[in-house]
User: Which sequence fits this backbone?
């Protein structure tokens, strides 16, 4: 039996030599292949798409109506016009950004596909880059319609924050990726037992980053911790912008500096956890 | 063709045949150890697999086959020793060789919601296969998958899934193919079909294939040589016919039972 014309051996040695010379350390093609893989998945599953919009919409509507009620009861809340809804939307960037990153990774665990991927030329950095891209895509699918709902229902225009929104977004998404990276490293090392961590870890930031109240509300000792967290500056900045029409660029630079430190630490942590998973031999035998 | 190797005693296939110049091994394992605390899952094994050979890695459950393959793939780091594929140390520089390797394992699956075509497209792009569409069409035709290409992988029978896994494993026309139980859970007809494809692929491509299997007729049919493992060590090796003769048995099934139960005459060379 010959393989000629059967397709099993259609690539000759010359093809393979070319493939070898095409090998590069970081390949946009391979990142694109992974993004394509996840886009296939999203397109094949309307519940996955719906989930991206459902909870952000529910949360925004709940907080928006609460703000409306408080505004009618007291002048204080009226002054804070948009602060609640703005905080909800920005919190969703932080939370959904991390969850989008982690869930995209978890899809490989659920489908028992990680071993296949690990045996391709895909590098960890390319895999992480694809997770970042998917985090942005998933976030956009949820945030854009919900922000339009906020405009329609409560007159809050997230996009009207302009450059301030860009600064808020960059800082929040960097924090979300740093957390997501660590969560994925833990899952690699500990298996699906660490899945709950991926879902819940960001919530520890909800009280500490002062999403819905000023840092001054916290006990003094806790304020030091809050000031060490990049998102705190974003939510303080949002309130400053909405209530006082003032944008504190210095705070955003501090937040960015902290993010660089945390993200670098997350990269180191992920690398160590990945190596530890290779030592323990857990990479091949992962799954549901 | 003879297999070289042993516990801590690697020799080249060429040297075993008395040639002056040994051919470069596709897979070269040297003094490989994997310890989990006091337990040595793999205990100082050495062997090499020449290009164009199909070598069986045999042993009972827990013998260390899958751990050995995981170290050859670079997914698990050895405690000591090295596993080289096409000259690259898989613990340190696996990315130099990965585009020329592929594998099939019961521990992994293709994403179930994606169609066969989508899955092969993603893996083809990861391997840099060009032209990809033609390659997928050729593989589908040869593996009898053309009519199924747009069906989700999760809606396939076990035999169809195996063919898809084989298509994935061949998408980059690998020079080294690592197969862990490639015909497990398949009916005899489908299993025979897969074996034929593997034989043809090896013959035409000259690929090295390392095969872990519990199916002894499969081993007899496919393998030029076999490595027999027990408790992390190589306890015997040789061509299937030689082993059958040496153990005074009729088939590899009986040889396997002798080795697994510590009976009979093994000769580690």
Assistant:
């Amino acid at each position: 039996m010959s393989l000629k014309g059967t397709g099993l051996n259609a690539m000759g040695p010359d093809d393979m030599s070319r493939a070898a010379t095409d090998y590069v350390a970081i390949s946009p093609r391979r990142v694109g292949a992974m993004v394509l893989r996840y886009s296939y998945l999203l397109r094949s599953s309307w519940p996955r798409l719906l989930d991206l919009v459902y909870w952000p919409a529910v949360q925004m509507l709940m907080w928006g109506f609460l703000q409306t009620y408080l505004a009618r009861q007291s002048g204080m809340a009226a002054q804070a016009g948009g602060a609640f809804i703005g905080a909800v939307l920005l919190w969703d960037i932080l939370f959904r950004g991390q969850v989008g990153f982690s869930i995209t990774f978890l899809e490989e665990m659920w489908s028992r596909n990680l071993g296949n991927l690990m045996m391709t030329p895909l590098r960890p950095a390319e895999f992480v880059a694809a997770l970042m891209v998917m985090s942005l895509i998933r976030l956009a699918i949820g945030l854009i319609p919900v922000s339009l709902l906020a405009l329609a229902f409560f007159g809050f225009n997230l996009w009207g924050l302009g450059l301030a929104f860009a600064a808020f977004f960059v800082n929040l998404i960097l924090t979300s990726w740093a957390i997501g990276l660590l969560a994925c490293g833990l899952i690699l090392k500990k298996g699906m037992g660490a899945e709950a961590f991926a879902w819940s870890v960001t919530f520890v930031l909800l009280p500490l980053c002062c999403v819905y109240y000023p840092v001054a509300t916290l006990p003094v000792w806790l304020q030091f911790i809050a000031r060490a967290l990049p998102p705190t500056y974003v939510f303080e900045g949002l309130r400053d912008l909405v209530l006082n029409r003032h944008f504190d660029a210095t705070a955003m630079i501090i937040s960015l500096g902290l993010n660089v430190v945390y993200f670098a630490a997350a990269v180191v942590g992920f690398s160590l956890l990945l190596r530890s998973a290779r030592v323990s031999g857990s990479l091949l035998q992962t799954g549901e | 063709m003879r297999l070289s190797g042993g516990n801590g005693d690697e020799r080249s296939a060429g040297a075993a045949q008395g040639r002056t110049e040994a051919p470069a091994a596709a897979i070269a394992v040297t003094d490989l150890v994997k310890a989990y605390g006091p337990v040595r899952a793999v205990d100082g094994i050495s062997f090499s697999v020449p290009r164009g050979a199909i070598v069986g890695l045999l042993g009972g459950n827990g013998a260390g086959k899958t751990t050995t393959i995981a170290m050859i793939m670079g997914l698990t780091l050895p405690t000591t020793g090295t596993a080289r594929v096409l000259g690259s140390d898989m613990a340190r520089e696996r990315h130099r060789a990965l585009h020329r390797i592929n594998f099939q394992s019961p521990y992994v699956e293709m994403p179930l919601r994606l169609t066969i075509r989508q899955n092969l497209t993603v893996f083809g792009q990861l391997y840099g296969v060009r032209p990809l569409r033609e390659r997928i069409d050729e593989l589908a035709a040869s593996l009898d998958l053309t009519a199924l290409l747009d069906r989700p992988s999760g809606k396939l029978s076990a035999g169809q899934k195996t063919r898809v896994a084989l298509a994935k494993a061949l998408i980059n026309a690998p020079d080294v193919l690592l197969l862990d139980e490639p015909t497990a859970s398949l009916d005899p007809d489908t299993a025979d079909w897969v074996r034929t494809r593997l034989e043809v692929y090896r013959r035409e491509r000259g690929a090295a294939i390392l095969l872990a299997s519990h199916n002894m007729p499969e081993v007899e049919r496919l393998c030029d040589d076999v490595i027999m493992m027990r408790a992390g060590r190589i306890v015997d090796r040789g061509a299937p016919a030689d082993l059958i003769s040496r153990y005074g048995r009729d088939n590899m099934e009986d040889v396997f039972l002798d080795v697994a139960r510590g009976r009979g005459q093994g000769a580690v060379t």
Summary: DSSP finds nine helices and eleven strands in chain B. Residues 86 and 160 of chain B are 31 Å apart (CA to CA). Chain B touches chain A through 60 residues (CB under 8 Å).
